Amino acid sequence: MPQRIQTDPARVERVLKVVFSQPRPPVARCRLLSSGFGPAHMLKVDTDLAGSQACLGCGSCMDACPVMARDPRRRARLETRTSMALETLVGEDCDRCGNCALACPQVDTTIKHYLVQTHLAEGMDRLLAQSATDEMLVLDLYLGES
Ligand code: SF4
Ligand code: SF4
Questions:
Q1: Is residue 32 part of a domain?
Q2: pLDDT tens sequence across 6-30
Q3: How far is the CA of 138 from the centre of ligand 1 (A)?
Q4: Are the beta carbons of 43 and 116 closer than 8 angstroms?
Q5: How many structural domains compose the chain?
């Protein structure tokens, strides 16, 4: 539900790199870097929400998190489904995958594009390089044994 005029990814790229260099859920900080509620939202509330970057408590970030998926017992520890709950339940175990920010309706699309085109692409490059190294290691071990 962010506004039509969104974050300029070139302006937030450096901040996003810092956010994703830290081992903790990034969704709240991505939300606060976003443009906030646009005036065309369909929520039936009296309050003027335009520009609000608040967490909606929708729980989408928790549902998209691989750490939560791998260990569902974490979910049972809290009733709330907010970014704060995600921070509490995942903390430093965060994989820094960016799924939570991609799933959040309050994070600007431009930030999501940055995550898909740069952050995830760099992660794939690292994984491919790692797997190539691992394959060489396995080959070395195999040749060493023969
Ligand atoms: S979805 Fe990914 S980046 Fe977000 S908290 Fe979970 S592991 Fe961390
Ligand atoms: S996905 Fe929903 S619960 Fe999570 S930070 Fe965004 S608005 Fe809040």
A1: yes
A2: 888 788 899 999 999 999 999 999 9
A3: 30
A4: no
A5: 1
